[in-house]
Amino acid sequence: MKLIILSPIKKYNMIPAYTIQYSYRKTVSIRINRKGELIVSAPIGISEQKVHDFVKAKNNRIIQKIEYIKKTISDKDMDVSKQMKEHALIQILPRVEYYADMMHVSYTNIKITTAQTKRWSCSNRWVLMFHWKLSQFPISIVDYVVVHELAHLVHFNHSKDFWWLVEKYHPEYRFSKKRLKENGSWLWLW
């Protein structure tokens, strides 16, 4: 049985929001998960007030621990994100350079992103953006995406001329596009 007690998390004796999980146990315990959420395990039958008093008594330590966990996880995520972006750049940049030279197009910059919405794009300032997860795909799909974005430097739309240009430099683009659509979505789940 779960009971969620909400209160704003602030310093100076404000108690953070917490979830009570009642179970067959003898003691009250506090746990903070990886998201920094406070979970209180309590014996069935103990009053909410006693649980609240227990949490209140440990409040300063809880807030310190939540802040520490959030900072630690954030730092680790930043390190992992930076490593993944660097790896992706090493994988994608040579493909971009190869096809840009072959297609006789130039770009101003390449950015490797962790964006939640856009996976890849080409801006009107000739900046190419690729999500780091693109580097996890087979090379034929990477090539398709790279050629697709480079073609936008010539045709900033999806006209017949645009698709003709994509096909000229990546003749199997239809297969790659289909494969990406059918099998690529799993990569965006994590």
Order the strands across the largest sheet as they lie in space: 1-2-4-3
The biggest beta sheet is recorded as: 4 strands, mixed
Per DSSP E runs of 2 or more residues, the count of β-strands stands at 7
**CATH-derived architecture of the largest domain:** 2-Layer Sandwich
| Tally of helical segments | 5
Please tell me how large the radius of gyration is: 25 Å
Helix vs. strand class: alpha/beta
Instruction: Please report the distance between the alpha carbons of the first and last residues.
Output: 29 Å
CATH structural fold name of the largest domain: Zincin-like
Briefly, what CATH class of the largest domain?
Answer: Alpha Beta
Strand and helix order: EEEEHHEEEHHH
Inertia-based shape: elongated
The helix content is 40-55%
How many domain units?
A: 2
CATH-wise, what's the superfamily of the largest domain? Metalloproteases ("zincins"), catalytic domain
Chain-averaged pLDDT: 80
- Proportion in β-strands: 15-25%
What is the subunit arrangement here? single chain
Low-confidence stretches: 3-12
